[in-house]
Amino acid sequence: MTTNCSFPNIPDDRLKRELLPETYQWCLTNGLVMYPINFQQEQTMIAPVTLYPTPLPRRSFESAEDVQKIYNELYAKISQDSGGWLTNETIKLANFDSEFTGKLWKLYLEAVKNGITQKLKLGVFRSDYLVDKRSTDIKQVEFNTVSVSFGGLSTKVGQLHNYLNETGSYSLGTKFYQQEIPTSESDSLLAKGLAAAVKKYDPVLENPIVAFITQDNERNVFDQRVIEYNLLKEYGIRSIRLTLDEVQERTYVKDEKRRLFVKSSDQEIALVYFRAGYSPTDFKSQISWDNRLVLETSYAIKAPDLMTQLSGTKKIQQLLTDELTLSKFIDDESTRRRILSTFVKIYPLDDTPLGKQGKKFALESPHKYVLKPQREGGGNNIYKGDIPDFLNKTPVDQWSAYVLMELIEPNSTEGNIVLRGNEMFKEPILSELGIFGCILFNETEVFYNEYAGWLLRSKFNSSNEGGVAAGFGCVDSIVLV
Ligand code: ADP
Ligand code: MG
Ligand code: MG
């Protein structure tokens, strides 16, 4: 079923003559841009975007915003490892997923052995939802604890759609939408979260630096730069950008506290902000792993540290759907209910009773499910009818590395237009809402816990996945209905 919402109905010739040039020029002027695949430095193009904002029920939007601080605190508590729960679960998982979770876990153990001098940690999170088409309730797709992106560009796409609406580009000189097209404040709220960590690191330190750890050939530079420029403009905090492999070349560690400094300027790095290191391909060689350890054991605050990164696995999300487990972290029953109401069923594929049920569903009714490994960044899941074959080719003792998740069914929207490169698509889309949050904490206390804006990403109805940088989706904004 699709919803046919009201979108401007503009004939193709006028679209090409008026609205598209208007849109392209706004995007390029305002940095709503992304490098194309296999780019040269001098090439840019507009980021994949929708031409119009996509309708979303106000009720769903606000309920996702309202629950974010509870989610921030939940994941902070998990990372604090109260009762050793995260440790226990990660050790089990590390055995099944030795290739990545296992390596992160080993690195964490080495860091503990070398001594972790900085107890402050910054979580920069994004909780992603689809709106269930029957109830309009939000249902969580996943909770991201590392390298969450599009906080910068999300603001810009909201500004673009407001600009096009207010200038009458959608509707021959008059405003097409009378309803609110909100603009996400993630561009400044994420900078505010990073600044809070820098301030707490050392309130009197002069010229503190934030180190953005980025991927080689990063295509999403401009999304990151928005946050970097806001840090400078609003808080006077400077940043450097470096890849994992460049850490030893460009930084050094000094004294027993292991404070981290920039080599070229001798400025102290207060915060290491990871926009890389979430996937095995980000670790090109042993050097990358060694450098990740240098950062983890340095006195700079990490956003995130390894434990916080490890709290964001799909396995942890699956375990939290059990109320008894959730009650380890949330005492208050009504708060627990609010979190539980955002979950769909997620099954392990192990020998527990729930795991046996999961295996049965995976093999007998796969069309209702998605199978997820412990990976980030899009393109890793196995969908519906592909699940049984995939599992049959996987040794049974490795099935525990996956979780089986009920598919959420959002309404698809017809009438929007997706711009990718210089192409335009008029296919039905599905939209995923992400809510950002920042939380600064140590082993026992929380010092800062804030909502940090939102993101709407849309993808073609015909595609299973929605990652924008992975090439499956586009950045969208919202018209509240
Ligand atoms: P990643 O960490 O790689 O982003 P996700 O869990 O977000 O992994 O899955 C990738 C995409 O798969 C999502 O953006 C969404 O489009 C789709 N997807 C994941 N889980 C579900 C689900 N339960 N129901 C419907 N679609 C889903
Ligand atoms: Mg995702
Ligand atoms: Mg993810």
From TrEMBL:
Gene3D superfamilies: 3.30.1490.50, 3.30.1490.80, ATP-grasp fold, B domain (3.30.470.20), Glutathione synthase, substrate-binding domain superfamily, eukaryotic (3.40.50.1760), Glutathione Synthetase, Chain A, domain 3 (1.10.1080.10)
Entry keyword annotation includes Nucleotidyltransferase: no
Known pathway: Sulfur metabolism; glutathione biosynthesis; glutathione from L-cysteine and L-glutamate: step 2/2
Protein name (database record): Glutathione synthetase
Reactions this protein catalyses: gamma-L-glutamyl-L-cysteine + glycine + ATP = glutathione + ADP + phosphate + H(+)
Keywords on record: ATP-binding, Glutathione biosynthesis, Ligase, Magnesium, Metal-binding, Nucleotide-binding
Cofactor: Mg(2+)
Protein family membership: Belongs to the eukaryotic GSH synthase family.
Note on cofactor: Binds 1 Mg(2+) ion per subunit.
One of the record's GO molecular function terms: magnesium ion binding
Origin species: Zygotorulaspora mrakii
Cellular component terms per the entry's GO annotation: cytosol
Pfam families reported for this sequence: GSH_synth_ATP, GSH_synthase
Its EC number(s): 6.3.2.3
InterPro entries hit by this protein: Glutathione_synthase, Glutathione_synthase_a-hlx, Glutathione_synthase_C_euk, Glutathione_synthase_N_euk, GSH-S_sub-bd_sf, GSH_synth_subst-bd, PreATP-grasp_dom_sf
Binding site for Mg(2+): E142, N144, E376
Residues the entry annotates as binding ATP: 142, 314, 372-381, 383, 405-408, 432, 459, 465
Domain annotation Glutathione synthase substrate-binding: ranges: 209-311
SUPFAM superfamilies, sorted: Glutathione synthetase ATP-binding domain-like, PreATP-grasp domain
